[in-house]
Design goal:
The protein is α/β, with parallel strands linked by helices. Helix content is 46%, strand content 9%. The protein has 20 helices and eleven strands. The protein binds S-adenosylmethionine (SAM). S-adenosylmethionine binds next to loops.
């Protein structure tokens, strides 16, 4: 029998099927145990210390009890603690990013993805370096500073050299006052050597969705291609960290398997990274399967309602309080509105999920990876965030100042965020307002900046941030950061 060991490097041992089944049983047995639930909620609450706040997080078993609980009063408590944690560690900032699809060539057979090898009618496209340049200029002209590059797995068409060249091209483009300052990478599981190359190319986060932690389902959902290897895929983050990448992003594609199983697996994966590498995931994404070219989400049995989705998101927030949470334009404005109050700290805006989509005037659909629900332009998303008292942040300072992995986490924990990330968010928002915003968004944005500057506790930092914002207004100087 395979034993459960969070510190093991073997997929079956750190994501242990038996432990997940026992966790689900424990959660069912305790879902109405009010005393235990109150204890768990108490443990999850942020506690003020001398300089800032700390949070203990929850184990996969504790968090699974909260997820099993159906009592609406307890759910409201979970939601309110999720928001408290988000405010304590991330304030009211929401980091902005956009995906950039480089190539939809793929040799895998993933049943939920329209890029699967057997899809013979979808046009296959791979951007040349010149086309990447056009995409990046279009993204810079929208105001983006942070990208997540996406590509199918194809060793012939999309070898690592292609990805590395593309990253180099992206970082080299400076159009008007624009530049891309952080490139996150979402490509298939690869070798330690390739992860080292990605690290040397200056990537931010390496993102890889597990899709499902349920091995049997995983093997069925990935019937062919290199992605079929569950262990290789599940152990990818350990290889990434061995290759020197500090910031890794986890995710589950909700809808494929039973959500409570996935949730337990996801939190166990975070515990594993903490146990082995001393630092948990930098981000967790919560995508749901969407309609796409030849994909009908209805063909999978485990679709989840918006309410369940909210419940899962809030429980992740309580379990891993220091991890950023990402929600993409797969979700509608309404769903995003709700999740922003439950701990999400990063969203995409103005996204196009087709290869070469940004350089086109009209949104193309022919090579799209999935239907985009939130189709608003970035300016509208920025304005909507501010209307709801969130600061849209285009900041990329942490990783460029070497604050990655546990160094980022300790910044979070010792309360320096308010003197660092907060002014950085305001300065990058000012850049957006000066260079890209509509007149209304600009007016709204400067009002927000004026209010928010007062919240910077350190007087010197506050003064400097205000000075830099004046410089951004009155000159072409950009990229100030603490
Ligand atoms: N090819 C890489 C891999 O295999 O991990 C990653 C890039 S893929 C373009 C990014 C993610 O899109 C996948 O990991 C999957 O979770 C998600 N995805 C695929 N099909 C989807 C669909 N129909 N709806 C929503 N998300 C989907």
């Amino acid at each position: 029998m395979v034993k459960y060991d969070p510190a093991s490097l073997k997929a079956d041992e750190f994501i242990n099927h038996r432990e997940i089944l026992e966790t689900l049983k424990y959660a069912d047995e305790n879902k109405d145990n009010t005393a235990l639930i109150e204890e768990i909620l108490e443990k999850a609450r942020p506690v003020k210390n001398g300089r800032g706040c700390t949070c203990r997080g929850l184990s996969h078993r504790e968090a699974s009890v909260l997820l099993a609980c159906e009592d609406p009063v307890i759910r409201e408590k979970i939601y309110s603690i999720a928001d408290e944690i988000k405010q304590a560690f991330y304030g009211n900032r929401i980091v902005m990013f956009a995906p950039l699809y480089l190539s939809n060539y793929c040799v895998n057979g993933c049943l939920y993805c329209p890029y699967h090898l057997k899809n013979k009618h979808i046009p296959r496209k791979k951007l040349s370096q010149d086309e990447i340049k056009k995409e990046v200029i279009a993204l810079q002209d929208m105001g983006h500073k942070r990208l997540a590059i996406e590509a199918g797995e194809d060793p012939v068409n999309n070898p690592i050299e292609y990805i590395l060249d593309s990253i180099k091209t992206i970082y080299s483009i400076h159009h008007k006052n624009g530049d891309i300052r952080r490139v996150n990478v979402n490509i298939a599981a690869t070798t330690v050597e390739n992860y080292r190359k990605l690290k040397d190319a200056g990537i931010g986060t390496y993102i890889l969705f597990q899709e499902t932690y349920h091995k049997e389902s995983y093997l069925k959902l990935h019937p062919t291609g290199p992605k079929h290897d569950y262990d290789y895929h599940t152990e990818a983050m350990d290889r990434a960290m061995e290759g020197g990448i500090d910031d890794v992003g986890l995710g589950v594609l909700f809808g494929l398997e039973m959500y409570r199983y996935e949730f337990a697996g996801l939190i166990m994966h975070a515990e594993h990274l903490e146990a082995v590498h001393g630092v948990g995931p930098h981000t967790i994404s919560v995508p749901r399967v969407k309609k796409a070219d030849d994909i009908d989400p209805g063909q999978f049995d485990n679709g989840i309602s918006d309410d369940t989705f909210a419940h899962i998101t809030a429980c992740i927030r309580l379990a891993v309080p220091y991890t950023g949470m990402i929600i993409s334009t797969r979700e509608s404005r309404e769903v995003r509105d709700k999740l922003l109050k439950l701990g999400v700290s990063q969203i995409s805006g103005g996204s196009r999920t087709s290869v070469g989509g940004y350089a086109e005037d009209e949104r193309p659909h022919d090579t799209e990876q999935f239907d985009v629900s939130d189709q608003r332009p970035l300016d509208e998303v920025v304005s909507w965030l501010m209307e709801n008292d969130h600061i849209p942040s285009f900041c990329t300072a942490c990783y460029r100042e070497g604050r990655t992995g546990d160094r980022f986490m300790s910044l979070c924990k010792n309360g320096q965020i308010q003197n660092c990330c907060h002014p950085n968010a305001l300065m990058t928002l000012a850049e957006y307002l000066e260079d890209y915003a509509s007149a209304e968004t600009k007016e709204q944005g400067y009002k927000m900046i004026e209010r928010e500057l007062q919240k910077i506790p350190n007087e010197k930092t506050r003064g400097l941030a205000a000075e830099h914002i004046e410089e951004i207004k009155n000159s072409n100087r950009r990229d100030f950061r603490f």
